[in-house]
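Suppose a colleague, Dr. K., hands you the sequence of a protein chain of 303 amino acids and asks what its three-dimensional shape might be. Before reaching for any lab equipment, you can write down a predicted structure in token form. Begin with the sequence itself:
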Amino acid sequence: MGRTWLGLVVLASVTSLPEMSTGISAVPWVDAPDITVGDLLGSCVFNLLILAMVDLLHPPGPALTAADRGHLLGVAFGAIMLGVTVMGLLPPPSPVSRIVLVHVGLSAPVLWFCYLVAMRSIFRYQRRERAAFLAEQEEKTVYDYISLPAASLKFGINALVVVAAGIWLARVADDLAGLMGWRLSLVGTIFVAVATSLPELAVTLGALRLGAVDLAVGNLFGSNLINLALLGLMDLLYFPGPLLQSVAPEHAATGVLAIIMTGIAGAELVYRPKKKSLRWISAGAFFMAFLYAAYIFLHMIAR
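The predicted structure, expressed as tokens, is then:
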């Protein structure tokens, strides 16, 4: 398995555990669907902000220029799943919002299907590219002194720590919203999203220290795919009705912002500029950071 696949699937599945544990506690326990949806969509936007930070911390040149083109598959499926989510957030008579399967909206099974297709497509692409690479040259084993059981044990222990840290976050966020008089959508989109995205930030910085750009980029795009698939799971656990129809419509704006930022990242992956346009940061990374800052500012003044 290459670094792109490990980042997209293995690492992303663990760094997205806080979103899952927070969402599971927020939906059936705290009964705060706005925290769940705000957290998952806000985490998608914050992960793209981390991608801009990766560019800032990658001195040789634009980070996405050094990344494998295979990440475009993650970008494309992320945009598709974000589009499905935004359509599910639109009020009736939107075709997606009118179709309900028991208590689950149509967007939930569509998101699950898209995620499974994305994982299979990315895996097959990476296997084909990796086979071609190994046919040309022998790959150097960097960590041959670490056994698979030892690596798996350490991986599992760290995953448990991440889960434990996210269980009580939904209750804390609900209390914070009550004390400060803030909307639950604001708390979920900004504060909870940033808190649950800290594992992505830590793993990304660790990957950069190793010089593994593909691991860092794959982790961020993969986390977004998992976050959107988790929206379908949370819909299944929310029995009063379709989850996306039970939350504030302003979450659609977060989804649209995530689509725009994903598009910017995809454009830079294709264009692959040779040097950073703004000395320390590429133009794409700058615009992603600017859009995030502007969105947070508008959210705060409208609280």
